[in-house]
Amino acid sequence: MVPRVRMIKEMESINSKICAMAEQVEKDILKAVKALQERDTILAREVIDGGDVVDDMEEEIQKECFNFLATQSPVGSDLRYCVSIMKMIRDLERIGDHCEDLAKYTMRLENADYGQELVNIPRMADMSAKMVSNAIAAFLSRDLRMARKVWKADEEVDELFRTVYDKQIELATQQQGNTEVYIMFAFVAAHLERIADYATNICEETVFSLEGETAME
Amino acid sequence: MDKHETFEISGLNLFYGDFQALRNIDLKIKRHEITALIGPSGCGKSTFLRTLNRMNDLIPISRVEGEVLYDGQKIYQKDYDVTNLRKEVGMVFQKANPFPKTVYENIVYGPKVHGINDKAELDVIVEKTLKEVALWDEVKDRLHKSAMGLSGGQQQRLCIARCLAVNPQVILMDEPTSALDPIATSKIEDLMQDLAERYTIIIVTHNMQQAGRISDRTAFFLMGEMIEINSTQKIFSRPDNKRTEDYITGRFG
Hints:
The structure holds 2 protein chains of 2 kinds.
Chain A: H1 5-38, H2 41-49, H3 51-72, H4 76-108, H5 120-140, H6 144-173, H7 179-211
Helix pairs in contact in A: 1-2, 1-3, 1-4, 1-5, 2-4, 3-4, 4-7, 5-6, 5-7, 6-7
Chain B: E1 5-16, E2 19-30, E3 34-38, H1 45-51, E4 62-70, E5 73-74, H2 82-88, E6 89-92, H3 103-113, H4 119-132, H5 136-139, H6 152-164, E7 170-174, H7 182-195, E8 200-204, H8 208-214, E9 217-222, E10 225-231, H9 232-237, H10 242-248
Parallel strand pairs in B: 3-8, 3-9, 6-7, 7-8
Antiparallel strand pairs in B: 1-2, 1-4, 4-5, 9-10
């Protein structure tokens, strides 16, 4: 057996960078929703300013992937791995963009009366953040079962989204307080639902990387 | 045998004395396709290639079992015309091996052996085959000078032209570019794509990128066995067999 030492080293470097990127967006999701919940505009500003960090991470990993393709000529599972990584970092970068948008809502609603306790939105944030970190963990540990489990968890997030959305419609219909707030919260829920969708994309990429197809069921 | 198949090989075993070099090979080679044979050194791919025009007959200790059908005919049956087989199934080797004769004489050698002696006819063959291998413009003014003065890449294209001069149906290539630089390699690869429209090509290569670039189907050999044959795209993106995957990704070999 002659393992390709340099290739494996490069893959390890990419793996550690994608792990750091996933940790960063996971933190951003939780911070963005915490800022909303606690009306913490300083924390929200931190998330907005931190958007560049995720963009830079994406660029760095993309460069390494290009080099990997150019110099290692990967085929088979190595090729699928690299293609998957390039798609995953795009998904993570988009999650970062969603976090920035969430933080912007906090700034916009700084002085608004929420007219409700935020319960399901923080739950959605916890679940989405966990899905992202578990999706990446499943990819790195080549764990198909875990990837499929995370993918399935999206159904719960979708359900929570519908609950939050219906609640905002109900409050808006009753004209209790500021309608814009309810619209904003519906948007927030939609962003979190999208974040969970990106996590499922990562799971699909994991299955593709390991098995060469994206059949999830 | 399907009319789209040039070769149909079944249960092929080949022995060099007591050593079994090929084990129970079943394989169909499609007409006008480029089939690449890959595998580590000593896996039997060149031996297999040589069974297709009975070049292994030249090795006294070799013995073949099983069946190789070429155009529906059993090529290992007793009274099979081997000379004609080698005319139909030409071969190009790793190292260009032009005869130490002129460019012209290299090309006309085969047709002459097969009875063509008319000068005008031979001239046509020379021009046609040299054009087929995109060498005509480079050598038309030196047809009667020694072929040994050509570059390595030109010599290899001359050998391909020499092979084409007897009007074969199949061209076997045993690592035809391994001694060439990237530019000469690229010319041969382009040539192969062009030739595949008229000929069936089977190429042994150690260069997996080359197999990926030029072939329609790829067969992976290991320790005398053919482990997998599939479309080249599938072999290099999602092979069926773990051993193929391990080999193409460089996990062993």
